[in-house]
Design goal:
Keywords: DNA recombination, DNA-binding, Metal-binding, Transposition, Zinc
Number of strands: 19
GO molecular function: DNA binding; metal ion binding
Bound molecules: zinc ion
Family: In the C-terminal section; belongs to the transposase 35 family.
Order of helices and strands: EHEEHHHEEEEEEEEEHHEHEEHHEEEEHH
Largest sheet: 7 strands, antiparallel
Radius of gyration: 31 Å
CATH topology of the largest domain: Nucleotidyltransferase, domain 5
Distance between the termini: 78 Å
CATH class of the largest domain: Alpha Beta
InterPro entries: Cas12f1-like_TNB, Transposase, Transposase_put_HTH
Number of domains: 2
Helix content: 25-40%
Pfam families: Cas12f1-like_TNB, HTH_OrfB_IS605, OrfB_IS605
Length: 510
Amino acid sequence: MLAGYVYKLRPDDEQATKMDNWLDMLRSSYNWCLNDRIEQYYQQYICGDYCDLRTKAEACALTCFVSKNGASGEPWKLDNSEVEIIGECCLLPYDLNNLPYSGKTPRRSAGDIQITTLPVLKKARPWFKDIDSTVLQQNIKRLDTAYKNFFEGKGFANFKNKSNFRSFTYASGVRVEGNKIYLPKLGWMRFYNSRPIPDGFTIKSVTVRKKSNGYYVSIRIEDKSVPDYIPLPIEQVNTAVGCDVGIKKLVSLSDGSQVKNPKFSTNKKMRRRMKIRQRRLARKKKRSKNRKKAANVVGRLHQKISNQRTDYQWKVAHQIVNKADLVVFEDLKVSNMKKRCKPKFDSDTGKYLNNGQSRKVGLNRSISDAAWFELRLKTEYVAAKSGKRFEVVPPHHTSQLCPECHHVDSSNRDEEKFLCSVCGYAADADNNAARNIKQRCLDKFNIKLTLKPHIKKEKAVRRDLPEPEQLTLGLILFETPTCEVTRVQRSYVRARNSKRSQRTEPLEAA
Ligand SMILES: [Zn+2]
């Protein structure tokens, strides 16, 4: 089983400066390698003559960046004695049908080539010798991952700047003893050992990450003897809960309960605080030390928000999973929901009309703040960890479908209230959606639950709907107290009560 543990590091001044320098050097190496690949690609694109060093085979310019005259080093793995290099070309008795490598192509990938040129880099720029060699290699593998993502349809790799290049990874050589960690070429470093690494686990890889309040280390550990989490087989599911995510209420569950959304970054207080801090930053002189300090203050606030959100979501995920054997979410495409509105033109004047984007900005911000996908991932993880099952269903019409008569109509829903226009069934709209989500999953797997449905079948009049009960379990307060009783108030209440008792005593005596 694989697991990831994160700790905060306590480097001394020397180590902190060293890590800062490493990040700068690794960033430049990363950017150089990226530029190298881009240039190679264009060179081949223009010349068209590539990949014919040995096999004379054509390769796609997108997948192969090595050109005959490429400056990026030897494109073949030289572990075969038959290979003989003359100049830049490999000449050997060799044809495509008779591969000497038992079918495996001995080609190096772009990443491999760049890794083998690292010694050249160290010779030309000796200060790179300060960096651990596995860190340098992993840095190039990071670029490989970026290219892999690109070929899978994500965006093209970016050149990195100081703000988006903040981590480096060790592949080996790291040791942990008590509250000290040994990082090669940085030495022993103390860290806050908030939870010990369990026995039997070995360290797979270690990533050091810079955040606005210091350095963190995330350790990937593995124990092959411990089996991975196995989800509950579908036949053993006895209870199920459907979850509908939203903005007013973070999660509405099919059992009628709802989870509050604290809106960590979009609530009034936090927005005001952020606004003030960002304004302070904007008014500082560019490239000044004070600007750096102000930027750090903004960064720390962002980090605080993200910490709060993560903490809350773990708690919510645990509470949801505790409710049933099967947890069902809807498969929302959040990025599509956050898309910009299409521009509107006036056909006569050709001018842009108001398309509602300025209003949507606020909605998009709330969607990002709610971080539904993060919650879904956490719930999935918690469900797997506690031996339960997690499923997703398509989200179409979950909020417009009547669970009683299966009538689908957008007029069924009026903001928070659901009232079927055919059969008159009424419920809270979000809880109703959650119920539909649950039912959709049950239909998909053809499960019949042994327990009774949570929602009572009774028709309510629209205005007399009962308020859904709030989750008040555990640590999370889903309802913040409206007023806190201060000491002065308490003494006032005590005085008032004593007066009352004095007043009542003579009556009783009489
Ligand atoms: Zn109906």
